[in-house]
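Archive transcription. Copying these from loose printouts into the bound notebook so they stop getting lost. Printout 1 of 2:
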Amino acid sequence: MKRTFLALAFATFGCGYRALYAAPAGERLHVSLARVAIANGAAGEEVARGAREELARQGALAAGSGYPALEIEVAGASESSEGIEVSAAGRAPGARVFEQTPTARATSVAIVARACVVRASGSDPERDTGDMRVEDLVGADAVDPVSSGFVYQDAQRAAAHRLGRKLAARILGDPSVSEGLGR
């Protein structure tokens, strides 16, 4: 009898575990893009779109604008060359090493942002995610630099979208970490 009571008590009440930064049950958040500190405004909007998508997926998106709000700040973007080489086009016959033109085989694109919950206008932020970073790799096309520019923009927007989803997931209490290329 005693064992049955204890088993029933644990099954009914559980262990009481709750994620430390989890959203209160039933809380719905509006999404607000507070600041975009990068030149590509479309990437900033893509962070917000990704956050809306994740909130909607988990049933925590409130329609329109208002409070409480998931406030997003896009802090920066970076890029770096990957796989640098001197192609055949960059080698001049008889040229010394320092006279040759190196090119990148790929470009690493990264977006950095943070998010927090704001309950009312002017209130203190809650559940700040801290800076999170998502990185993507874009292959370079030395023959057609115009198409490489479009691919670069697409990669930046894709990284921004993934970052928005990660920010919203972290705000809702899911463990989310920054993504990198493992360097």
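Printout 2 of 2:
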Amino acid sequence: MIYFKNNKLIMLVLINMFCLLFFTTVVFSQTKAQVYSTWDTLEVDTCATAWLIKNFVDKTAIFKFYPKGDIITEGIAFDTPDAEFRRTGEFCAFETVINKYQITDLKIKEIGKIIHEIEINYWAHDSDLRLQELKQNVSAAVQSAASPEQGIEHSFLIFNKLYADLSGK
């Protein structure tokens, strides 16, 4: 058994070990991507919410899809009836993410209004060409995709363009 004559040395070693363990844990926990899960029936609000999460909440987000009606068993659920981020009578899922993470970007707020009109005010998009176009473009992107993962990626291009177009305002 080795005896240390200086208790300060023991404390220094213990502190260094704790710091190493703590910082290693923090680094690895920050590099692990969070899973966000939803049903595989992609609609405008679902796609817009995934885009918002990926671009303004969690750049390392991974999306997982379940058949409609299945219980979400992994990650943070969104745009399903029991999810925290879901459509209510007052807000679309996109808006619940904006509210939860206090996103103040004015272009995001404007996109939120557009998604709200499509998702909550069902009849509004019948008379607004901008809403009709967005809904048709997202629907075409999703339908042309081989998988929900690919559909989400295709829809991200549409929302990137919408966001960029709002920059000109």
